[in-house]
Sequence to fold (732 residues):
Amino acid sequence: MVGTMSRLVRGLAAGLALALTLTGVSNAQQPVKTDHATASLIAERAAASPGDTFLAALKMDLLRTWHVYWRNPGDSGLPPTVSWKNSAGVQADEFKWPAPRALPISPLLMNYGYEDQLVLPFDVEIPKDAKPGSTVTVAGDFQWLICQDVCVPEKATLSLDIPVAAAPKPDANASTLIGNFLKTTPVELAGSSSLQRTQDGFVIGATDPGLATAAAGAKDIRFFPYTDAVSNPSRQEVKIGDKGVQVTVKASDLAKPGDIAVPGIVVVEGPDGSLKSWETQAQPGAPLSGIADKVGATKTAASGGAAASAAAPVVPAAPEAAPMSAMDLLLTLGAAFLGGLVLNLMPCVLPVLAIKAAGLVHTAHDPKESRAHGLAYLGGVLACFGAIGLIVVGFQVIGHTTLGLGFQLQYPPVVAFFALAMFAIGLNLLGVFEMGTSLMGVGGKLADQGGRAGAFFTGLVAAFVGAPCVGPFMAVALAATLTQPPATVMAVFLTIGLGLAAPFVLLSYTPAFAKVLPKPGKWMATFRQALAFPMFVTVLWLLWVIAGQAGSDGVILVTGGAILISFGIWLATKIGAKPVGAVLAGIVILGGFVAPSILSAGLKADAGTATLAKAAGAEPWSEERIKELQADRRVIFVDFTARWCVTCQLNKASSIDSAQVRKAFADNNVAFLVADWTNQDGVIAAELAKHGRAGVPLYLVYPATGGDPAILPQVLTPGLVEQAVKEAAGHI
Fold:
């Protein structure tokens, strides 16, 4: 959890840095010097022949003590990227990533990258119809994040003109430089690899004669993962055998509970500091003989150990989209506004509608105060969606583009604090204590300045609870936006907030609305008290959420916090009249909020707690399981869900668990898979993005004949699900 929360904070800072400080210059075949690096393109050909294929490279000379990042940057960072714009017919391929170094940035955080100099090779293919005597150009827009104590985004447009000749001519200097970096890129294992899941990590085995020989005299050995499943800064125990190596690593808080594939690189640093790397595609399996059984030596890779190389990560970043046209942006903002409007009808927001109704009743007969409350409510909604947008932008900058809506409820401390806040609101509505608002008697003043603060807070709560619910229009807007520039992302999130707040603001500015509401009277006190119970129902729901995240200990912590808050409120009524008493009561109340939120961060779900898949009589979703079931020509129904998604739970109760749907599943031999996104899961987030969604629910139906799945609406009915599975089975 420490690593995940620290990524969240650094991601937000990096997002602001990219939006405010991105700099760069353009160049035509000359090295580009930025504030912290000198960049250029080089090639192993001084001249190329028609149809020739060769290596070129991005060459970067970095200022001393500054570094750039590997394709998997570790706990933070952003790898170099390129947008090619070559001359006609010239093809430039992806980077071939040399082995990086482990770059510790604190006792708990680790980055992977390069210092001093980096050469990123890539293949270039010259068109077969290129004419000798002509010139072809390799060019592109390059971006990178370069860091020391601070991080600075930089960019450059680089190009390289290559003459075309009847026969190719080498460039000896460039060939040597490219070759030195290319030899550190990973090679496939001549043997095999395996994976064992332990209670808190993984044991990865790799056999290869060359690896075994290099490891025997190694200065350091380290495993570098392609995914977030491995805790980056953990010390690694390495066992060396006569056939290869075995590395024990600690799992991160993003790792899945069961055995999963953990691909990556085993890198050996020789006595002279040179690097060699081997690519592993570790799958669950038995320990490899010749490693665990015959151990020649045991080493420990420290946090700043050797380096590794990379291929494409298992959880790929979403591709960068081209900037929207003005018309596309207008259409997207329109969809975002409609999506915000629809949020007012989603089950996630229903508990907060009670508070909004109370605000309307209290202020409808005072036009000035009504408008002030409307604007305050709007401010609260926009503040929440603005903060969510900034966090999403920050994650984009550090390369985590699979962040989706609902992420705020994937952390037990946030859920615990929110549950306690709802409990306190309920007590306030019951009249146990006042939070700066007062009825001021029958027919008296309706709400003072404190009521406006309450309206702002109500807007915050409505947006916070409503954001995880992705309605039809919002899904379209977010799918088109999450890979766009930061300004576009922020505009869409704020427009969603405008849509959510629009009905309440419109009513607050409509004097005629007051005519249909009853006059203030004694009934208002009873009405206010009745509104407390939707808040307590919300608390009950959040306790169920945290039970799936932090187990029974998490529920006990939140319950204890509620008791402590209640005691603090009671204490305030007894001794709060004096300053010392008020301070003491305040400390007790603050402790009730803070202690459970902090302590829940290190908790895990109970071993016996059923997953949503097991509870639904299904099995967990995975891409591998989809392929297996499609090979068996089965109809597949996939439910992307989360405990904190009220819409998901209502769909489950009303449709998925209905007798009609269960019979349809049985009659059509449907395989039922559940992708549980209650906790953060980059694989599920990437799959949601693949289908154009930024949150749950998402329902997929794969046909028995294979091919792409059908996507069902986000609000289900039993008949709709039954018809979809019958069509997928070919019975309609």
